[in-house]
Design brief:
The chain is mainly alpha-helical and 174 residues long. It contains 8 helices and no strands. The longest helix is centred in the first third of the chain and has 28 residues. The chain is globular. The protein starts with 10 loop residues before the first helix and ends with a helix.
Length: 174
């Protein structure tokens, strides 16, 4: 009642600096993910390529849900739609759904061992592939073959490497 609010000096500045650093990390890692997604591969290796941009959305949604999250997932999904030339919003919806599920469970998943995190990421990637498949089926376009589901497995296998990379990045900035 009637108290005076006192601002702590430097508290907002530290948070703003961390947010700026996180945003720049998100932008740089997003560009790297799109480069990895665009590098041409042989057709046998192409089916094994994990969806790097979606893995990145999951990574940022779990580790920094305020910086990465549903909006990040939506805009990265739109970028995937434009890059692949598919129905606009198809990957945006699927990636935003995955980001929502990751943000919703981020406190539980971050404390789990890498194997359990990989299983969670596998389930998220299956949901992403299934959502894209359903939209393609409702749209009447080609739904592809069974190899599209392999990307969920390769993404789950890559996940521990992404977490190790993320841990090494944050350990270097502390």
């Amino acid at each position: 009642r009637g108290g005076v609010l006192v601002a702590r000096p430097g508290a907002d500045g530290c948070r703003d600096a961390a947010m700026t650093e996180s945003r720049s990390s998100v932008v740089l890692s997003t560009l790297a993910a799109f480069v990895l997604q665009a590098v041409p591969l042989a057709s046998a290796l192409e089916m094994l390529r994990p969806p790097f941009a979606v893995l990145l959305v999951i990574f940022w949604s779990l580790t920094a849900p305020r910086v990465g999250g549903i909006a990040l997932g939506f805009f990265i999904g739109l970028a995937i739609d434009v890059y692949q030339g598919v129905v606009l919003g198809q990957h945006a919806l699927a990636t935003a759904l995955v980001a929502y599920l990751a943000v919703r469970q981020h406190l539980l998943v971050r404390t789990k061992p890498l194997l359990e995190q990989s299983l969670f990421v596998f389930a998220l990637l299956l949901a992403w592939v299934a959502t894209c498949w359903l939209i393609e089926a409702f749209n009447g376009s080609s739904t592809g073959d069974a190899t599209r589901w392999v990307t969920a497995l390769t993404g789950a296998v890559i996940w521990p490497l992404m977490m190790i990379w993320g841990a090494s990045r944050t350990a270097g900035t502390r």
